[in-house]
Amino acid sequence: MFYVQGIAGQTFRGPLESLDRVAEIARARRVRAIAHDGEELGTQALAAGGGPGAEAIHAYRSMLQIDQERGPLIHAAQIMQSRVIVVAADATVEQAWQVLAERRIHQAPVLDAGQRLVGIVSERDLLTALNVDHGRVRDALALRVTDVMTSPVVYAAPVTDIRRIAQVMLDYGVAGMPIVAENEALAGFISRGDILRAVMIDPPLNLWR
Questions:
Q1: Distance of alpha carbon 109 from alpha carbon 88, whole angstroms
Q2: pLDDT tens, residue by residue, 160-183
Q3: Can you say how many angstroms the Cα of residue 135 is from the centroid of all Cα atoms in its chain?
Q4: pLDDT value at position 52?
Q5: Burial bucket for residue 193 (CB in 10 Å: 0-12, 13-18, 19+)
Q6: Which of 29, 70, 133, 193 makes the best surface tag, with the fewest CB within 10 Å?
């Protein structure tokens, strides 16, 4: 189950297939999903032309094992980082940068005064409002995190299949996803690295089906 939440509150609750109906999220889509059977390489044209290229494509498709089992189901709660570094919505952009730099992270969920998730702020967001020289802030605009963060934000429930989380990351070009419990408290965070580690530990897992 996925949710969309911003400063005004929750605006969506539903399955992955319905996320495209949320206008704010649809506009944010920056990365297309992985194409099937290598379409991103133009293999349809190669196959039609015959020759060595077509033979290679046929061999590749024969190895896809489309009929294989999906593999074990892994939920977000099993791989998420439960100790999450967060940034306050009313913090200055310089304070937020210091948090990311000290913790050596590239992004962090943003919470309002009521500890409610309202967005995500990344290094890229912050660099629109400050200049950094040799790792130190040289100058910064008088802006707060709420002025530069990405909001609304998509988050998932702890029991969400990580295959579906990976699909959202690919479709909407995000590098991580907050995990929020039923009581609306931030429960964890999943990054691309967390999903890749799960794949390495359990190779049969097929993320893209």
A1: 9
A2: 999 999 999 988 888 899 999 988
A3: 25
A4: 54
A5: exposed
A6: 133
Between CA 126 and CA 33 the distance in angstroms is 27
DSSP structure string for 1-29: -EEEEETTEEEEEE-GGGGGG-HHHHHH-
- Reported as a single tens digit per residue, the pLDDT across 28-74 is 544 333 343 344 344 344 444 555 555 665 555 555 444 445 556 88
The pTM of the full predicted model, rounded to 2 decimals, is 0.70
Q: What is the pLDDT, as a whole number, of residue 124?
A: 92
In the chain, the domains with their CATH numbers are: 2-31+73-201 (3.10.580.10), 34-67 (no CATH)
